[in-house]
Design a protein that fits this description.
By secondary structure, the protein is an alpha/beta fold. It has two domains: about 60 residues, no CATH class; about 120 residues, tm_1862 like domain (pyruvate-formate lyase- activating enzyme), CATH 3.80.30.20. Helix content is about 40%, strand content about 15%. The strands form two sheets. Strands 3-4-5-6-7 form a five-stranded parallel beta sheet, covered by helices on one side. A two-stranded antiparallel ribbon has the order 1-2. Helix 7 links the parallel strand 5 and strand 6. The radius of gyration is 20 Å and the shape is globular. The structure holds iron/sulfur cluster. The site of iron/sulfur cluster has 11 residues, from helix 4.
């Protein structure tokens, strides 16, 4: 948004432009994103572009609705069935998505081992994102298994700069090159799973996992990549 100063010269006010763009999305988004974007000015122009793309996708979904088609704003993509951990109560294993791990049963671990399934390749995922974007989907949640074990994971946000990506990771499989690529992206938030204290995380996820997860979170913060944590709330950690 261009404004004029007292001498009639026009100037660009990023805070005002961003606020206008975000307010058109959702006031909660303004609260979450605006302070972060202003702390990382290299993302300002990209966020204005993303906010406009969000508005356009909302209009596309409204148009679809008037045709009788309900399109969600977000899709969850389980990028890979592979995982390097073996957490207690893993829902991906419980639903039979993780090959070689036991599925089903009352406690989520009984029953048979999940069968090997043919995973979708990068072109298949690109096609799904392209087609659902045409229908008005704006946000893609990249989950697993462990999504960073999918070799070309970050080529998706790199290729679709007008869509937003949330990556849910256990924080133990990110490579140096992943941090370098994430640093250049404005359209990704990375969520790392922790269960609370070191003991709580390690009890569920394995010895040493908490420290690796915290190290990844620290690198993401220093990287200037928007990040957060995800927690499975249980009777053991809800007070923490
Ligand atoms: S990191 Fe996630 S997918 Fe992997 S075992 Fe743990 S809960 Fe399951």
């Amino acid at each position: 948004m261009k404004r004029e100063d007292a001498d009639g010269r026009s100037f660009f006010n990023p805070r005002r432009t961003l606020r206008t763009a975000f307010d058109s999305m959702d006031p909660n988004m303004t609260r979450a994103f605006l302070p972060w974007v202003l702390r990382h000015p290299r993302h300002v122009l990209n966020f204005i572009h993303l906010a406009r793309a969000f508005g356009a996708s909302t209009r596309v979904r409204k148009g679809r609705r008037s045709e009788g088609m309900m399109v969600p704003s977000s899709l969850i993509l389980s990028m890979t069935p592979d995982c390097n951990l073996n957490c207690a109560g893993c829902y991906a294993a419980a639903t039979g998505a993780v090959p070689g791990k036991k599925a089903g049963g009352k406690d989520g671990w009984g029953g048979k081992k999940a069968p090997l399934r043919k995973a979708l390749g990068i072109e298949g995922w690109r096609r799904i994102i392209r087609e659902s974007s045409d229908l008005g989907v704006y946000c893609f949640i990249l989950a697993g298994g462990e999504p960073f074990l999918f070799p070309e994971l970050l080529s998706l946000p790199e290729d679709f700069r007008d869509r937003y990506f949330l990556i849910y990771t256990n924080g133990t499989a990110m490579r140096d090159s992943d941090f370098g690529r994430l640093r250049k992206l404005s359209n990704v938030t990375v969520f790392v799973s922790v269960e609370g204290s070191r003991d709580m995380t390690d009890a569920r996820r394995g010895e040493g996992v908490h420290d690796l997860a915290m190290r990844s979170l620290d690198r993401l913060r220093r990287n200037g990549t928007m990040s957060g944590i995800t927690v499975t709330i249980t009777r053991y950690n809800y007070k923490y």
